[in-house]
Records
---
Amino acid sequence: IYSYSQFGNNGSYWYLNKPYGQSSAFSYGIDFQVQRITKHHFIYGLQVGYESLSSRIKIKNIILYDHNPYSMAAYLPGSDVAADLRTTLSFKYLTLHPFLGARMKIINGINTDIALGADLAFCLNSKERVKVTTDNWHSTITPEIGKPNFDSRLRIDLTNYYKKIGITLGYSYGLTNYQASSVYGDKVYSQMFRIGLIFRL
């Protein structure tokens, strides 16, 4: 992903046109789940949760702009600046996850559940944090970024239970374009892999 950023010499002008990264940053979540298992080992249930999801991207370059008071042009392009630039993008969601699935016995003493469902994620907060380091200066910037009010995803989970403890692996693919309002016509969809520990009551 190519990222392009601009600064005014007074530090007031900034944008990053593609802040969405493919590298994962620290993310976590907590969920409460209820489910039923029929006599034919059919599963249906609902999960309610909170999650904080973050991605990270290394920015390839910045361009400095110098103000010219004698010209109609607001800024004149300066030279490229070699720099260490990173941005972390975080979203916090309240989620609902209805699912259907089946229980299997593959290993004696272990219950294996496979479930398919949807993630209905309501965005509570979004934050972008940019660290900029050059030969001459260091700065941390928190530009404003619009948040999607809602993200819908398809989800699959595989869970193995031993007595009251389980380990779950999951994958979700988003259906909501985070760049729907972009003038560049880009499309960005969320994708996430999950690993979690489950305690049954």
---
Amino acid sequence: SPDPIFGDRARKGRPTVLGALFSLAGLIILVCLGVWQLQRMAWKEDLLKHLAALKSQAARPLAEVLAGNEKEFVRVSLECPDLMSRPRLRLYGIQDGQPGYRLMTACPIAGGVASVLVDLGFEAQGPQADTPAACLNTPSAPDLPGPSVGILREPDTATFVTPANQPASNLWYSRDLPAMAKTLGAAPPATSFVALESAPSAAAAGCPLLRRVLPSDLPNNHLSYALTWFGLAAALVGVYVAMLFRRRSD
């Protein structure tokens, strides 16, 4: 019977154009995937170096950072005295295996011309939650005596599996910053948000929220992934060459 890929001529040691094209296409795809993983490895190494340097980076004024068009992983200081008493939104999330909410609020910047969303921290749900329920709404929290410090982050993009946000129920599943700012009655926001690290006297406001503002463990397995793809490419070449010899010997 005819060879399903290489045709009748392949049985005589002469592979068809179709068979060669299939093999070439597979080889190109595997090599491209290997190269892509090498590029990802270089990106991840740069990111890990940046995060290591960020641990000792001094906070810079938020307006200065935004004016320089910096958007990700920069330590900033924010003047927002009533930060702990501003209205809050609940962003669903999971931390350390426990479901809960990241509490989001908005602060004005540049004299009220614009705003920035601030992630105040994670408030756990369930019987193990140790954050006071009042932290969901603290209108009487005292003004902060100095600037707050946080990390400027870009929001993750919602995917097709991300549930739709429910602003009317104050339940959010993705950081849609413009929609969040509108719901909070704030001016159009910056395209990045501030993940709060510390705020003066925040503990006195009765809200010991869990703040994880930087990735704690970023695996860098891209080299092994690249070697896997390159190995598969080499195997494909080996199979193709072996097929040629086998067909010719027949």
---
Amino acid sequence: KSGYTIVITEDKNHPFQLSDDLQKQAREAVGDKKDSGEKAKALFQWFQKNVTYGKLGRHKYKVGYRTSKEVFDDREGVCGEMASLYVAMARYVGLTANYVSVKKDNRDEDVVNACAGVKLRNKLVLVDPAYKT
């Protein structure tokens, strides 16, 4: 058990929303993998094939970040939205994952970015679907 509670709500302020389709996709993406690292990698690979960086769908929703469900439905989002979707999917498949605000990127440049932090083998590993790293 992951210790997380699945939240399905109409409250647009909750970023980690899970729909039935999103849950199904998370399960399919990881398949029968048991190892946390393999699960995290499988979700990342699913992202690379299925979610693009962009904000075309934002006009359909509120101003600000969309929820994980909205980003999943649109299959595109900006860094923080992609991070929220990754965290929601990772938590659903039993990974310990959190949203991480990033001020310096992997090239040591000042940025305003967000990614997911996944606990793997007692270490925090940053997963950034927007940066594809």
